[in-house]
Specification:
The structure is a single chain. The protein is built from 5 helices and 3 strands. It is an alpha/beta fold. The protein has one domain (5-110). A 3-stranded parallel beta sheet has the order 2-1-3, with helices on both faces. Strand 1, helix 1 (15-34) and strand 2 (38-42) form a beta-alpha-beta unit. The two termini are 22 Å apart.
Length: 111
């Protein structure tokens, strides 16, 4: 067993934040019982991040995910929650980007 496992946490939007918080609490119990250690790094991402910054997550996030031993990502509702905010932007700039397209790209790269 490794001394510590690197874990990237991608809470996303809406209920993802709440579910992720509880999942991290569960991992803390695992650390105590099993003796495993997780070096956790949370990366802000999702529809709200896209609306604020114009990108789905900070620049080096993809690389951090690829290097991590594990990724905790609560994904699914972000497309719906962000769609209302992004609809006008998509029409105005001709792009059809969804805030979680980086998560899909990351998932394909790590399989």
């Amino acid at each position: 067993m490794k001394d510590a496992y690197s874990l990237v946490i991608l809470p996303g939007d809406g209920i993802g934040v709440e579910v992720t918080r509880e999942a991290v609490k569960t991992l803390q119990v695992v650390e105590e019982i099993v003796g495993a250690k997780f070096d956790k790094e949370e990366i802000e991402c999702g529809g709200h991040y896209y609306v604020e910054h114009g990108v789905e997550w900070p620049e080096d996030s993809f690389e951090k995910c690829v290097r991590a031993d594990a990724i905790l990502a609560i994904h699914g509702q972000g497309r719906y929650l962000a769609s209302r905010h992004l609809a006008a932007r998509r029409r105005n700039n001709g792009r059809n980007l969804l805030p979680h397209s980086g998560l899909s790209r990351m998932a394909r790269a790590t399989l």
